[in-house]
Every structure is written in C-alpha cells, then in structure tokens.
Specification:
2 helices, single chain, mainly alpha, about 70% helix
Length: about 80
C-alpha cells in the first residue's frame, strides 16, 4: 500500500481508468465477435451492420488511447509520417 497522499490518489485514478478501459475493450471485442458470427452464419446484412459498429468502437478505443493505432508497414516508415 502506498504511504504518500499523491500515491494513494494515483491508485484511485488508476482503478477508475482501468474500469473505464475494460468497458471500452469489452464493447469492441463483443462487436468483433458478433461480426465474425454473422459472417460465419452467412448473414450479409447483419455482418455489415456489426462491421460498421465494430469499426466505430475500434476508432473510439484508439481515440481514447485504450488501444494503440497500428503504425504503417516497415517499408513506408521512412518516407511517410503517420
């Protein structure tokens, strides 16, 4: 257990952020899972709907820095900025 007041505060903040990140991760993971299930079932319309939802949730997760954006391929790293 931390002794200093600032370390205790940091623990509280970390707990809140961890809980928030778990919710965000759960949302995009479930959307991806539902997309895969719809594709394997052959339901095109439902798969499109879930694909759109999963892309939106992944974008939100990367915007909130829950997940990292993927860098460009190695052959383009020197020539372009991302």
């Amino acid at each position: 257990m931390p002794i200093k007041k600032s370390a205790k505060k940091y623990m509280r903040v970390t707990e809140r952020k961890t809980a928030k990140n778990k919710i965000t991760k759960g949302i995009f993971r479930s959307n991806i899972k539902k997309t895969k299930e719809a594709v394997s079932a052959g339901n095109v319309e439902e798969a499109k709907k879930w694909l759109k939802a999963s892309m939106k949730s992944l974008d939100k997760a990367s915007q909130k820095k829950v997940i990292k954006k993927t860098p460009p391929p190695a052959e383009n790293q020197g020539s372009t900025r991302w």
